[in-house]
Every structure is written in structure tokens, then in C-alpha cells.
Automatic annotation (TrEMBL):
UniProt keyword Nucleotide-binding present: no
Family membership: Belongs to the glycosyl hydrolase 35 family.
Protein name: Beta-galactosidase family protein
All copies of domain Beta-galactosidase galactose-binding, residue ranges: 492-550
PROSITE patterns: GLYCOSYL_HYDROL_F35
Residue span, Beta-galactosidase 1-like first all-beta domain: 365-474
Pfam families xrefs: BetaGal_ABD_1, BetaGal_gal-bd, Glyco_hydro_35
Domain Glycoside hydrolase 35 catalytic: 8-319
Keywords: Glycosidase, Hydrolase
């Protein structure tokens, strides 16, 4: 077992230094897991670290799944086959720029529930999840012949709260399920006191100044084995902001300083991957900033798994430290041949609602969570009685809304807009009023963690509320489109086409001329695009393609200037 004693880490009674890299299996199609893990081992690393997101494995209350990209068992088995130790972080909250920090959105159906504390209702949900997950993880412990050497209790808890009873409750659940490996917490150096337990291993998260960081740890816990659980070597991107990079020399310099201090470390990220489907998170400080689809992170491997200069730099440093490294071929991986794909069929979302949406009626509008919906879009529809110009208050709409009167587009609202009221003209005595709302990603860090989506309250029009609403939940799970009953020309619109593949390989979907929406390949949602960037291409992993015909669908929310997309061999992240 991994142990802490005399200021050092010991495995099976022998001193050990953990040289780890973060790879999130849930951001990578399973067909690429082995490649990424083998490159980690070749780079001089002896350990892989991964979070386990609760919302990915229990997407609906009581519906637990470990299949496909969720097969964390297979990921651990591959790591062991390749010769890597595993650090698991199955804490209820992961942050990670992941939707709601990994907490499942269905928790928000209970308005009285309080997250990340010893609230008994929250702990009861967590216990039911762990009753399924932890028995699976238990069998992969190092002490039982598996690769897992450590488990995280909670993640950056000092940046959220100080409920030690909550941390102890998680530890107790681990022990009740037979988890016997080393337990730890991880926090920023200035947040370790509220976020840690005195009698469990305290690790740090930082991107620079390792001397100062470990000095803070030493002052609070003298003799604690030093480990940076998240050495941030890059950063994530948000829509409308520049693409982040960090040069290889700076990355290597901090790494050498950390190793010279005798520390263990985990590179965050070794390989970032992709926020497929609707799993991107968001940050909210002064404004709401949703994370882009790519989680390239300027990591050691690119989003598509290519080796970078930063990888070579780190590999050289680790070789100097005596780590075993392997040469990786210089040639670029295979790419699908470049081509233009025509999207010859189209249909308005409003014409295909019966085949893609679940309908619900209620006297007042329900939030997305009250509709038992986690992600995607909701169309709200009601009848407004009154002719003339009326003010419509917008701040009930989370996060981006399109407004229509009698089937005619009127206005687009984004929650960051300073304008919170718009005057709209209702031309008839009785009018159909529609609001199409996109959830652009729940906040994954800080005080806005528990915000709800959709219409979070009734809409104030003129000087009154309107009642009796129809609501259509749209989650884009392999939509089957009806192209035969087209009457409406409004956006959002679906576009569909196909292309033939001889040998499946990675490619990138370029969307010049399109404005905002999602791309699906053979029913799998690659994620969001938005013309404001920085990201201009979506990564399409080869394992999602099949020999022969492949179906591509685009849900365009706002309008476009071309009926085609391009498959290109290079990414454009801005």
C-alpha cells in the first residue's frame, strides 16, 4: 500500500515518487484510451490520475451506468496492463470545467437541498451513488492486486466551505465500502486549512512558485509528503475569449524546481480531451463564462492525442530524473482525407418537435431541472392576451433565449447582456409567445454552483404574469428527424447530410459560415460551436466513424450562409 511516513511516500515499504499525468476517460472516446495511456508511460510517467464525475455515471436519479465512455473499469484495466499506477478522484465534486463540477443536475429538483456539506439529504444521495460505485472501485485497489494507490476525499473544498463533518462523512463511506488505500484532499496552498483533514494526506494544486506553495504546507503540516496533485501546465478556454497557451520552457522550469524539492507531482492536464455533448462547465465571477467544447488545455498531448514540444520538454526532464522513457514516432497520426460535406436536408426544429422533444404542461413555467432534464434546450410556449407594445423582462431566462411572437422571431437575449428588459409588439388580441432557451453549461466553481436553467421564474410581461405553459425538452440524444412535414422556416433548424469513409480516422469539422449550435456524428453529439470563437473546429475522433456511410447533423440556432461543412486535417482553436 501507499503510505506517508517520515515526510515521504512509501509503496510496499519502499520510497516512491509519484510522477503522474491527468487523463480524463470521460473526455476521450474509449477507442483512444490505450493510445493516450501508452504515451503517458512513454513520457516517463508511472501513474495516471482521473476524476470520476457523478453526473456522468448517474445521469438520472437511480440510473447508474458504467458502459462505453463510462467504463472506468476498462480504463483502469488498461492502465494496469500498460504498467501504470492509478489515482482516483471519485469525490462528489470535481470542478474540472465539467458541467456543474460533476454534480448531477437532478439534485436541483429539491429546492431545499444544500450541496457539499453535511446536509443529510445530500449525503443520502451521495451514499446511494457510492453504494453502486465504490464496490466496483474496491476491487481495483492496489492492496487487492489492482492499480489504484490513492483516493481523493473531496476536491478543492477549501475554496468552497469548511464543513469537516462533511469530509469525515465521505471518508466514512469509503471505509464502509472497504476502501483501504491512502486518502487525500487537494487544495490551493492558501486554502488547505478549511479543505483538509488533519489526519489525511494533504496535497496542493498550483501552476507556479512551488517553493512558496510547499512552504505553506510545511508551516501547517510539518513533515507532510510533498505532492502537487494538479500542476497546471496550461489553461482552459471560454467562448469569446482568447485561446490560452503556456510555453514549454516555463512548464519545464517549474517542473524542475518542484522535482528538486523532492516532490511528487501530477501534470494537469497530460491530455485534456473534449467536452463532448453538453458536458462543458462554466465559470462565473464578474460575468458568466461558458467553457468551449475543446479541453485541449495546451496539454502535453493535443486534443487529438498528438505529441507536443511541451511533451518532449517534460520527457527530457523526467529522463534526467531517472524515469524510464520510450521514443514515440515522429510522424503525424492518420487523418481522414479533407472534403466538403453537403447538408442537403433541413427542417425547422419547430416542425420536428414530436420526434425530438418530450412535452409537458404546467400552469407556470418549470425550470429545466423541474422538467427532469439536465442538458440541452427547452422550448416554452404560452398564449399572451393583449394587443400592443409591452415590456418583457428577460432575466428569468438562463442562459441564452430566442423570443418569438406568433411564429415570428423577435429578439435574442444572453444572460451577460446589460439590457434586461425589451419592448415587444404583440399584434393580435391573442398571441402565441415562445421562448427557446439553451443551457450553455452550469457553473463548475464557486458560489453559483447550484443555479438552475431554463425559465427560472415566470416571465413578467407588461404588468402581469402569463400562465398555462407548454414546455418541450430537447436533449439531442441521437435525434431522428422528420423531414416530411415542413411548414416552418424558422431557426433553430436541423441540417443533415452524409459522407462515405473507407478507413475511419480522426478529422476536424470546420463550420465557416455557421453561427451557433451543435454537431452530431452518427447520433453522437460532438459538442457546441459558436462563431465568436476562439474555437473554429470540432474534433471528430475516428472511432466515432464507421466504414461506409456516416450521418452528420447540425443544429443551427441562429442562421447560416452555407449548406455545407468541411472536414479538415488540422484543428483551429484560435
Amino acid at each position: 500500500m501507499l503510505e506517508t511516513k517520515e515526510g515521504s511516500l512509501y509503496l510496499d515499504g519502499k520510497p516512491v515518487r509519484i510522477i503522474s499525468g491527468s487523463i480524463h476517460y470521460f473526455r476521450i472516446v474509449e477507442g483512444h484510451w490505450r493510445d493516450r495511456l501508452e504515451k503517458l508511460k512513454a513520457g516517463g510517467f508511472n501513474t495516471v490520475e482521473t476524476y470520476i464525475p457523478w453526473n456522468f455515471h448517474e445521469p438520472k436519479k437511480g440510473r447508474f451506468t458504467l458502459e462505453g465512455m463510462r467504463n472506468v473499469e476498462r480504463f483502469m484495466q488498461l492502465a494496469q496492463e500498460i504498467g501504470l499506477y492509478v489515482i482516483l478522484r471519485p469525490s462528489p465534486y470535481i470542478c474540472a470545467e465539467w458541467e456543474m463540477g460533476g454534480l448531477p443536475a437532478w439534485l436541483l429538483k429539491d429546492p431545499d437541498l444544500r450541496f457539499r456539506c453535511s446536509d443529510p439529504v445530500f449525503l443520502s444521495h451521495l451514499k446511494e451513488y457510492y453504494d453502486h460505485l465504490l464496490p466496483v472501485l474496491k476491487t481495483y485497489q492496489y492492496s487487492e492486486g489492482g492499480p489504484v494507490i490513492a483516493f481523493q476525499i473531496e476536491n478543492e473544498y477549501g475554496a468552497y466551505g469548511d464543513d469537516k463533518a462533511y469530509l469525515e462523512a465521505i471518508r466514512r463511506m469509503y471505509h464502509e465500502h472497504g476502501i483501504r488505500e491512502l486518502l487525500f484532499t487537494s487544495d490551493g496552498p492558501d486554502m488547505i486549512k478549511p479543505g483538509s483533514l488533519r489526519d489525511e494526506w494533504t496535497t496542493l494544486n498550483f501552476g507556479s512558485r512551488p517553493d512558496e506553495a510547499f512552504q505553506e504546507l510545511e508551516e501547517w503540516k510539518p513533515g507532510e509528503p510533498r505532492m502537487c496533485m494538479e500542476y497546471w501546465i496550461g489553461w482552459f478556454d471560454a467562448w469569446g475569449y482568447p485561446h490560452h497557451t503556456r510555453d514549454a520552457a516555463s512548464t519545464g522550469d517549474v517542473l524542475k524546481r518542484m522535482l528538486n524539492l523532492g516532490a511528487s507531482m501530477n501534470v494537469y492536464m497530460f491530455h485534456g480531451g473534449t467536452n463532448f455533448q453538453f458536458y462543458n462547465g462554466a465559470n462565473h465571477y464578474d460575468t458568466y463564462e461558458p467553457t468551449i467544447t475543446s479541453y485541449d488545455y495546451d496539454a502535453l498531448l493535443t486534443e487529438s492525442g498528438e505529441v507536443t514540444e511541451k511533451f518532449r520538454t517534460v520527457q527530457r526532464i523526467l529522463a534526467e530524473e531517472g524515469q524510464d522513457i520510450e521514443k514515440i514516432p515522429e510522424e503525424k497520426p492518420a487523418r481522414l482525407s479533407e472534403r466538403k460535406v453537403e447538408l442537403s436536408q433541413s427542417v425547422s426544429l419547430f416542425d420536428t418537435l414530436p420526434s425530438i422533444a418530450a412535452r409537458r404542461e404546467n400552469v407556470t413555467p418549470l425550470t429545466m431541472e423541474e422538467l427532469d432534464q439536465s442538458y440541452g434546450f427547452v422550448l416554452y410556449r404560452t398564449t399572451f392576451e393583449g394587443k400592443g407594445m409591452f415590456s418583457v423582462e428577460l432575466d428569468a431566462m438562463q442562459d441564452r433565449a430566442f423570443l418569438y411572437i406568433n411564429g415570428v422571431y423577435q429578439y435574442t437575449y444572453y444572460r451577460n447582456d446589460t439590457k434586461k428588459v425589451v419592448d415587444l409588439f404583440f399584434p393580435e388580441e391573442s398571441n402565441t409567445f415562445e421562448i427557446f432557451i439553451e443551457n450553455m453549461g452550469r457553473v463548475n466553481y464557486g458560489k453559483y454552483l447550484s443555479e438552475r436553467k431554463g425559465l427560472i421564474q415566470n416571465v413578467w410581461i407588461g404588468n402581469r404574469y402569463t400562465f398555462d405553459w407548454d414546455m418541450y425538452s430537447i436533449e439531442l440524444e441521437d435525434p431522428v428527424l422528420d423531414f416530411h412535414h415542413q411548414k416552418d422556416e424558422r431557426f433553430p433548424k436541423f441540417f443533415e447530410g452524409s459522407f462515405s469513409v473507407e478507413t475511419p480516422a480522426d478529422t476536424f469539422v470546420r463550420l465557416d459560415g455557421w453561427k451557433k449550435g451543435n454537431v452530431l456524428i452518427n447520433g453522437f453529439n460532438l459538442g457546441r460551436y459558436w462563431e465568436i470563437g476562439p474555437q473554429k473546429t470540432l474534433y471528430l475522433p475516428g472511432p466515432l466513424l464507421q466504414k461506409g456511410d456516416n450521418k452528420i447533423q447540425v443544429l443551427e440556432l441562429e442562421g447560416h450562409s452555407t449548406p455545407s461543412v468541411s472536414l479538415v486535417s488540422e484543428p483551429d482553436l484560435g
